[in-house]
Amino acid sequence: xxxxxxxxxxxxxxxxxxxxxxxxxxxxxxxxxxxxxxxxxxxxxxxxxxxxxxxxxxxxxxxxxxxxxxxxxxxxxxxxxxxxxxxxxxxxxxxxxxxxxxxxxxxxxxxxxxxxxxxxxxxxxxxxxxxxxxxxxxxxxxxxxxxxxxxxxxxxxxxxxxxxxxxxxxxxxxxxxxxxxxxxxxxxxxxxxxxxxxxxxxxxxxxxxxxxxxxxxxxxxxxxxxxxxxxxxxxxxxxxxxxxxxxxxxxxxxxxxxxxxxxxxx
Length: 266
Fold this sequence. Notes:
It is a single chain. With 266 residues, the protein is α/β, with parallel strands linked by helices. It is built from eleven helices and eleven strands. It has helices spanning 4-12, 17-29, 35-45, 49-63, 71-91, 111-121, 137-148, 171-174, 177-182, 225-229, 243-256; strands at 93-99, 109-110, 125-130, 133-134, 152-157, 183-187, 208-211, 215-219, 223-224, 233-239, 261-262. The strands form two sheets. The protein has a nine-stranded mixed beta sheet, with helices on both faces. Strands 4-9 form a two-stranded parallel ribbon. The radius of gyration is 25 Å and the shape is elongated. The relative contact order is 0.13.
């Protein structure tokens, strides 16, 4: 922690906003750099043991600055940084998704429930990218219902024709005839893929969902019954900010420049 911004971020990044606001108020009331008193006052304000050492390190780092700022100046810095972090957190929310054994250590959303919620909440458009599709009935049903209410569905899949045996069935047919008719389906053609010196080609291995450019699903899970129910799979849901629209725009560009090709009915 060598700079004022480093020190302030160290203090507030893991603090609830109300705690940071209270610390800023206490700092504003102090008139001089009495380091022992500052540690005592701030520790009393937040009695939780896990924050006691945190506050001591903050004050010591503040004291070690070449030109330590006044309590009033630190108060303004703390309040400003806390407000900026709170605003950022409101703009973007991130959740973990999981298929597999549970533990008490992390709160996790079920993979299938998270993806179905993303699909059910879409109002205009949905992008789905997956390596494999197989017997994911609940997900495919949610996509069909979204299409029936007027949501534009774009699906990008690995193709058995260019997967070099990694997929032994038609991912396109696995979507089902009804959804296939309602969605635009794209593949990554052989001619557009990078190869190794030995001639091995890359795979379309991403598993992604984007709804309305507002919600982003990234996961290790394919659109398969096993991935949604019995495998060990982990992913994230990102709500808001600029990541969802950037991913949506990225794939739109891959479609427009011909890297991804729309397929005809099988």
